[in-house]
Amino acid sequence: MLLVRLLIIAVVVVAAPVSSPRDTFKGPSDTIARQVAGLPSSFKWESTGILVGPPNDSRKLAALKDPSIVYYEGKYHVFVSTVDSGGYNLAYLSFTDFDEAKDAPLYYLDQSAIGTGYRAAPQVFYFEPQKLWYLVFQNGNAGYSTNKNISDPTGWSSIKNFYSSMPSIISEHIGDGYWLDMWVICDAEECHLFSSDDMGQLYRSSTSIADFPNGMSNTVIALSEPNRFDLFEASNVYYISSGTYLLLVECIGSDDARYFRSWTSNAITGPWKSLADSEANPFARSNNVVFSGEVWTESISHGEVVRTNVDQTMTISPCKLRFMYQGLDPAASGDYNSLPWKLGLLTQTNSAC
Ligand SMILES: *[C@@H]1O[C@H](CO)[C@@H](O)[C@H](O)[C@H]1NC(C)=O
Ligand SMILES: *[C@@H]1O[C@H](CO)[C@@H](O)[C@H](O)[C@H]1NC(C)=O
């Protein structure tokens, strides 16, 4: 019976002209009929309060930012950017439950062979073919470090870069922007590296699985927007299931707050189709997030889906998504690099599965 109803609705949706009764469909059947690979066409979230912020130590950090998170061997492993008056670097923390995050010791990764200097916006994953963890980040280039043991933050290698220099298609478009927020995802044949320029371009380079991490080339513009704030930075690309990839990109809304838009595609190479990609129907924005306590942030900024599959395919389940993000006291002001970003967690409340 349900199946029959779904089929009828599906036929109506496909056949419907632009202003059709489809817009008057309400309720779960409508959501199910239009969903892509288990993803809804609109999202609802609940947020925690502040989970973790800068510790009170001699580093005097202004912010913890840009979380990358995997759940592996009974623990959440989180890599973050640290911001202090000297600039950006990276840190690691781990905990078994989110309510323990605030007490987790922060290991400053400049103490590992990653070293001091500008490193930011980490992405962690396990590259199965080499049995190695990779930490990918921006360092002026797209840098990476490797480690056999994600639980041992002293074990990260010295940095190598994916590129000999900025790909020419990026230098031709970047203008006054910044080259940042690198993201790697591999399918069965190739690994792809996405990056942004804060100017409305999302770039993608590729290499073969066999050559990875070498050979990143053939850089193209994967998606672009004439208004740079509509496609700003912090892209995530995930594999949902056969035929569906999910793209998230952080944008700046008409209220100046950060939020995420979303697209899907049947290939990492695109083309990308709108999923929830507007301020009115965002992937995650203040207007589709309910806070369990005080509304401690109006920005839903740089973050990642909590991954329990840790490998290079960036596979996630579309069910009950969790998204760790950075937020900000709405009253905070001042220089962007001194803003007190802290971390929170969204849990999807309208999952169809
Ligand atoms: C931070 O640490 C210093 C030195 O231990 C201490 O004097 C101060 O009260 C602490 N501040 C907070 C907010 O905990
Ligand atoms: C990984 O590192 C942790 C922390 O140093 C250590 O306790 C554990 O034994 C290491 N695992 C392996 C397989 O070396």
Automatic annotation (TrEMBL):
Write the record's keywords in alphabetical order, separated by commas: Glycosidase, Hydrolase, Secreted, Signal
Q: Does the keyword Cell inner membrane apply?
A: no
Its annotated compartments are: Secreted
Per its record, the protein catalyses: Hydrolysis of terminal non-reducing alpha-L-arabinofuranoside residues in alpha-L-arabinosides
Q: Which residues form the signal peptide?
A: 1-15
Please state the Enzyme Commission number of this protein.
Answer: 3.2.1.55
Q: By its UniProt entry, which CDD domains does this protein fall under?
A: GH62 (cd08987)
InterPro entries tied to this protein: GH62_arabinosidase, Glyco_hydro_beta-prop_sf
The biological processes this protein is annotated with in GO are: L-arabinose metabolic process; xylan catabolic process
SUPFAM superfamilies hit by this protein = Arabinanase/levansucrase/invertase (SSF75005)
**Annotated Gene Ontology cellular component terms:** extracellular region
Kindly give the Pfam families that the UniProt entry links to this protein: Glyco_hydro_62 (PF03664)
Q: What does this protein do?
A: Alpha-L-arabinofuranosidase involved in the hydrolysis of xylan, a major structural heterogeneous polysaccharide found in plant biomass representing the second most abundant polysaccharide in the biosphere, after cellulose.
Protein family according to the UniProt entry? Belongs to the glycosyl hydrolase 62 family.
The protein's name: Alpha-L-arabinofuranosidase
Q: Which organism is it from?
A: Lojkania enalia
